[in-house]
Amino acid sequence: GSELMRGKRGLIMGLANDKSIAWGIAKACADAGAELAFSYQGEALKKRVDPLAAQLGSDIVLPCDVGDEASIDGLFEQLREHWDKIDFLVHAIGYSDKSELRGRYVDTSRRNFAMSMDISVYSFTAVVQRAEKMMPDGGSLLTLTYYGAEQVMPHYNVMGVAKAALEASVRYLAEDLGKDGIRVNAISAGPIRTLAASGIGDFRYILKWNELNSPLRRNVTTEDVGGSALYLLSDLGSAVTGEVHHVDAGYHVVGMKAVDAPDI
Ligand code: NAD
Predict the structure, then answer these.
(1) How far, rounded to the nearest angstrom, does the alpha carbon of residue 47 sit from its chain's CA centroid?
(2) Is 159 a domain residue?
(3) Is the CB of 72 within 6 Å of ligand 1?
(4) Binding site annotation covers 196?
(5) 20 to 30 A from 47, CA-CA: which of 19, 56, 149, 230?
């Protein structure tokens, strides 16, 4: 690995298993010399996250449910027992009731709308409030979004609305924290088969569509996302903030693809 992240410490939130986008990012950071801490949601995930953290030389594995303010405070209190400051934070967390990630957006319930916004949008701001206090020398904050924020994608529904709000919050946070040398960015990842994605209707079709229609004619991997995250989290991205960076094999630039057989 490189030395890009040597001497930097970061908190990775949202690791569930080795298919998680958080895992691709954590590996890239560790490979570049970063020291990592992890947070996980619920005791059931601890037994998965512990060995993954250990694989990257970390034994700082702390519980946090981002739907609960006291739990977020608890996370940062425990983190301070290990480190007095951090250089970066990754928020790879989203949630919506999967019964509403199929069918029509218009049928979204008030209850699930509020919960999706709370867990998938507000939680980033809530975490940034605490992280800011541990970044006296500046830092880099990163969240994960999806193209369904910008364009209508099948079944993405309320998550598309939530991701649009998350992307807007990245811009506001970037302005608020920029004067303290803290950068705030998002990666808009192409579809990847993860636990969270398995809740989305027709996900296999979405993957195939992206593979066939993206300029690179392939899907993206968590390693692809890790590489781009490394740029945003390290000093390579030192003048980049408020950005939504697409890591999607170029899918977002295509309006319409030419037919391969021209006489359709
Ligand atoms: P994942 O299931 O591996 O990760 C989602 C994580 O969110 C899990 O670790 C889960 O524990 C955590 N989480 C959910 N509710 C939580 C809560 N209340 N408190 C704490 N943690 C909570 O799936 P993933 O695809 O790696 O998702 C990571 C991020 O990437 C999400 O924001 C997702 O929307 C985004 N994203 C995913 C894709 C994709 O196709 N997989 C594409 C673009 C963006």
Answers:
(1) 22
(2) yes
(3) no
(4) yes
(5) 230
- 0.95 exceeded by the pTM? yes
b/e for 88-116, b at 16 or more Cβ within 10 A? Answer: bbbbbbbbbeeebbeeeeeebeeebbebb
Question: Is 228 a member of any domain?
Answer: yes
- Residue with CA closest to ligand 1 atom 10: 14
CATH number at residue 107: 3.40.50.720
Question: Packing angle between helix 123-132 and helix 157-178, nearest 10 degrees?
Answer: 20
* Known active-site residue 251: no
Of ligand 1's listed atoms, the one at least distance from the Cα of 193 is: 41
Question: Does pLDDT of 169 surpass 90?
Answer: yes
Q: Which residue minimizes the CA distance to atom 41 of ligand 1?
A: 192
Which of 40, 95, 147, 156 is an active site residue? 156
1 within a domain of the structure (yes/no): no
- Give the domain extent around 161: 9-251
Q: Is the pLDDT of residue 201 over 90?
A: no
